[in-house]
Design a protein that fits this description.
mainly alpha, 234 residues, PAP2/HPO, Vanadium-containing Chloroperoxidase, domain 2
């Protein structure tokens, strides 16, 4: 399929002469809950073909996405900047694990329950990273700073393709798993996850579509993992 959007591997970042280079290696790692089939298909552990819950980038209006981002960045608030910096400092997977441990303490989990919960959480996040990196490099969508506009970004732009946002996919996955184990805190978990994804938009390093579609994809992968517990959505 011919792409109708700007590619990450073809445009330099501001102040640079050559397009960025990254590593697609995580997209080829083996997974815990997902298997690679033939002809580019992916299967769950029951052998069912997975159709990913994410729009093809050809269907996204990237011009409108850029305009929305520019408008937001030029009307940035201190709260938005604080959110961007908080979630941009350290790894989002580590922050989701910190959340998981605090919830386990609130639920008075013992060591066996905590180990089981974190095993499912981190195996699901691992698979989410694999699929995210596979799609990032397959689709090769440019970052906002590659459109020749002077964007007042809050953080540096990562050196890998934009779509989907890894912050969003990891957060969406964590939401699915953590709301299963800790249903009494579902509303709070969802609030935290939305903020984590939105932080990348506030930082100026992702489009809104990167986040919205990333959350959908991450939730799907989290539920694929939960099916092994007999608890996920089918």
């Amino acid at each position: 399929m011919r792409t109708i959007y700007r590619k990450w591997s073809e445009y330099p970042y501001p102040g640079e002469q050559e397009p960025p280079k990254g590593s697609a290696a995580p997209g080829y790692w083996s997974m815990f809950f997902i298997e690679k089939g033939t002809n580019g298909q992916f299967l769950d552990l029951s052998g069912r073909v997975i159709t990913w819950s994410i729009k093809h980038p050809n269907t996204v209006n990237w011009g409108s996405e850029l305009a929305l981002l520019e408008q937001t960045l030029h009307a940035q608030t201190n709260q938005h900047i604080q959110i961007a910096k908080y979630w941009g400092t350290g790894e989002v997977a580590a922050k989701m694990n910190s959340l998981a441990y605090s919830l386990a303490e609130a639920y008075r989990y013992g060591s066996p329950e905590t180990a089981r919960m974190t095993a499912y959480l981190n195996a699901a996040i691992h698979d989410t990273c694999v699929i995210t990196w596979m799609l990032k490099y397959k689709w090769d969508v440019a970052r906002p700073n590659q459109y020749g506009h002077s964007l007042p970004t809050v953080l540096f732009t990562p050196r890998f393709p934009s779509y989907p946002s890894a912050h969003a996919t990891i957060s969406g996955c964590a939401e699915a798993v953590l709301t299963y184990f800790f249903p009494a805190y579902s509303a709070r978990i969802q609030e935290i996850v939305r903020e984590a994804a939105l932080s990348r938009f506030y930082a100026g390093v992702h489009f809104q579509a990167d986040n919205d579609e990333g959350l959908r994809l991450g939730r799907q992968i989290g539920n694929i993992a939960l099916r092994e517990l007999g608890a996920g959505q089918t």
